[in-house]
Write a structure and sequence with these properties.
This protein has 241 residues and is mostly helical. The chain has one domain. It contains ten helices and no strands. The chain has helices at 2-13, 22-47, 53-79, 83-86, 93-120, 130-135, 140-174, 176-189, 197-214, 217-240. Helix 5 (93-120) runs antiparallel to helix 9 (197-214), helix 7 (140-174) packs antiparallel against helix 10 (217-240) and helix 9 runs antiparallel to helix 10. InterPro entries: CAAX_protease, Rce1/LyrA-like_dom. Keywords: Hydrolase, Membrane, Protease, Transmembrane, Transmembrane helix. One of its GO terms (molecular function) is endopeptidase activity.
Length: 241
C-alpha cells in the first residue's frame, strides 16, 4: 500500500508537462488534420480501383494511428521532450480504477439516453458509416483487429496526442475548461461521425477530467480502453445476433 500511495503522490505532485507555443500547437493541429484528410482521400481513391473496402478501412485506421505515433515521435525529438512531459507519469491504477469504472458507467448512461433520443426521432446510423462497416460480418480475426485497434492502439496514441499534447497546450492559453471543451470538440469532430459527435465529446471531457485530476495519462487511457473494448464487444455481439 505504501508503494501504491507513493506512486499516486508521484503522479499528482510531479511537475506539469511542457506546453507548446502557438506556432508549434498550430503545426501539430494542422498535422493531425492533414493526416486525416490525406489518408481519407487516399482511401477513397483506392476504393475506386480496389474492391476490398473493409481491408482499405482497416489500413486507413492503422495508418492513422501510425501517423499519429510518427507525429508524437517527431515532437519528442525536435523539442527534446521526455515521456513524462507528455503526461506519462506513474499512478496507482489499483486505487483509481474503481473511479474509472464509475465514470465509464456515467458516460455509458449518457450514451444510452442519447441513443434512445435519436431512436425516438427516427434516426439510425447510416449503413455507409465506417464503424458499422468495420464491425459488420464479424469473424474472429476481424474482432481481434478491432480490439487491437480500438482497445489498445487508439487509447494509447490518442490520449498522448489529444490529452497530453493538445489539451495540455491549450490549457496554458485558454484555461482548464475552455481547453477541455476545445480538445474534446477536436477529438470528436475528427472522427467524422455526425451522430456520434455528442457522446464522443462527453467522453473527451471525462478523459480530460481524469488526466487533469491525476496529472497522468494512465487513468484516461484506462477509461478510453474500457470504453472502446466494451463498445466493440457489444457491437460484435449485436452483429452476430
Amino acid at each position: 500500500m505504501e508503494t501504491n500511495s507513493q506512486d499516486l503522490m508521484d503522479g499528482m505532485n510531479s511537475k506539469p508537462n511542457r506546453r507548446l507555443n502557438w506556432v508549434d500547437l498550430i503545426v501539430v493541429l494542422g498535422g493531425v488534420v492533414c493526416i486525416y484528410l490525406i489518408l481519407a482521400l487516399g482511401t477513397f481513391w483506392l476504393m475506386d480501383i480496389w474492391p476490398y473496402e473493409r481491408l482499405l478501412m482497416y489500413l486507413n485506421a492503422f495508418m492513422t494511428q501510425l501517423s499519429f505515433v510518427l507525429l508524437i515521435y517527431l515532437l519528442k525529438k525536435v523539442r527534446r521532450w521526455q515521456w513524462p512531459d507528455f503526461g506519462w507519469r506513474r499512478v496507482s491504477l489499483k486505487r483509481i480504477f474503481p473511479k474509472v469504472l464509475v465514470l465509464y458507467a456515467l458516460t455509458m448512461f449518457i450514451n444510452i439516453c442519447y441513443a434512445i433520443a435519436l431512436y425516438n426521432y427516427g434516426f439510425t446510423p447510416p449503413e455507409t458509416d465506417v464503424y458499422s462497416k468495420l464491425l459488420g460480418q464479424v469473424t474472429w480475426y476481424s474482432l481481434i483487429l478491432n480490439l487491437l485497434l480500438a482497445g489498445v492502439l487508439a487509447p494509447i496514441v490518442e490520449e498522448t496526442l489529444f490529452r497530453g499534447v493538445i489539451f495540455g497546450s491549450l490549457q496554458a492559453y485558454f484555461g482548464k475548461w475552455t481547453a477541455a471543451a476545445l480538445s474534446a470538440g477536436i477529438f470528436s469532430a475528427l472522427h467524422f461521425q455526425a451522430y456520434g459527435f455528442f457522446p464522443r465529446f462527453v467522453l473527451g471531457i471525462v478523459l480530460v477530467y481524469l488526466y487533469d485530476k491525476y496529472k497522468s495519462l494512465y487513468p484516461s487511457v484506462a477509461l478510453h480502453a474500457v470504453n472502446n473494448i466494451l463498445a466493440t464487444l457489444i457491437a460484435a455481439r449485436l452483429m452476430i445476433e
